[in-house]
Amino acid sequence: MAFLASDNTKDTGTEMSFLQHLEELRWHLVRSAVVIMVLAIAAFCFNDFMFDTVIFGPLRQDFISYKALCSLGHKMGAGDVMCMHVRPAHLQTLSASEQFFNHMWISLMAGLILGFPFVLWEFWKFVRPALMNQEIGPVKVFVAIASMLFLIGICFGYFLLFPMSYNFLINYQVSSSGIVQTQNTFDDYISLISTMTLVSGIIFEMPVLVYFLTRMTLLTPQFMRKYRKHAVIIILIAAAVITPSPDVTSQMVVAVPMYLLYELSVFVSAYVIKKHKLDKI
Fold first, then answer.
1. Under 8 Å CB-to-CB from 133, ≥6 apart: which residues?
2. Is residue 122 exposed (0-12), middle (13-18) or buried (19+ Cβ within 10 Å)?
3. pTM of this prediction?
4. Backbone angles phi, psi at 230, to 5 degrees
5. Given pLDDT bands bounded at 50, 70 and 90, which one contains residue 21?
6. How far is it, in rounded angstroms, from Cα 83 to Cα 81?
7. Domain boundaries of the chain, sorted by first residue
8. Helices and strands, number each (H, E), in the chain
9. Are 186 and 245 in contact, with CB atoms under 8 Å apart?
10. Residues whose CB is less than 8 angstroms from the CB of residue 94 and which lie 6 or more positions away in sequence, other chains included
11. Which of 58, 47, 53 is nearest to 196 (CA)?
């Protein structure tokens, strides 16, 4: 098995040894880690903006998503059905170190999100020497698309998925007696917003995952088309769970982007099959 050639050895036709290959990979990882840490430190220093504007944004009634959804509901003739009324929140801390460590965690998350395109670019530079000339263009497109999908997923999780889910959960009551009251903690809030936002970004990488699974002949567009109805049911159930109201309009706001993502994955799988002639469409 031939090892990847570095930029210096590709022209001479020589191959890298296994240790040289690891050394090259190490420097790509080091550069990626440095960029992530620099961005994380910058986010740590701008704590007022990071928390008051970004992290605590969904706790305010004037959050852009709430105004946009309410306006959309009125334009569609649904009245105030899609208008969410945010309950005033005061997040509690239960330990002296809770604010500091959550500050560090959010800063690291910001560094990872903002530095993700650079990490993919470093990955591209690592694999580029092993590619044929005709493969370089498609891989460049892959890096751009993967970065774009991840950032779109982050925005989807932050502006739609988290606000709807949080308002549903914070107002949920197991009984109408009012005996149980939710007093949210700062740690729980940070955990929920960071997890849902990051997971949403990863989920939006599904077309990229489908691309590689199809290249490895582990997935076909026929399989995805066959189970499309099952996927639609799962998407509708997920949208019904995370939306704060039972109306169809608000559920479609969440379900439609997820369904389009699935259809995009089917298209990607079919493209790979056609391009590499792995199967007949």
1. none
2. buried
3. 0.79
4. -65, -40
5. low
6. 6
7. 14-171+183-204, 208-281
8. 12, 0
9. no
10. 185, 187
11. 58
> At 168, which amino acid appears?
F
For residue 239, give both structure tokens.
């949208």
Using alpha carbons only, give the angle 14, 17, 23 rounded to the nearest 5 degrees. Answer: 115
**159 is written with which tokens?**
């502006």
Cα(6)–Cα(280) distance, integer angstroms: 37
Contacts of residues 242-246 at CB distance under 8 Å and 24 or more positions apart, as own/partner, are 242/161, 242/164, 242/165, 242/168, 243/164, 243/168, 244/84, 244/164, 244/167, 244/168, 244/171, 245/81, 245/82
Burial track 37-73 (b if 16+ CB lie within 10 A, e otherwise):
eebbeebbeeeeebbeeebebbbeeebebbeebbeeb
Which amino acid belongs to residue 5?
Answer: A
Radius of gyration of the chain (CA): 23
Query: Rounded mean pLDDT of the chain?
Result: 82
Q: Which of 128, 150, 126 is nearest to 139 (CA)?
A: 128
* Predicted confidence band of residue 32 (pLDDT cuts 50, 70, 90): very high
- Give the residue from 42, 210, 25, 28 showing the smallest Cα distance to 113: 42
Residue 16 · residue 4 · CB < 8 Å: yes
Report the pLDDT value the prediction gives residue 3, as an integer from 0 to 100. Answer: 43
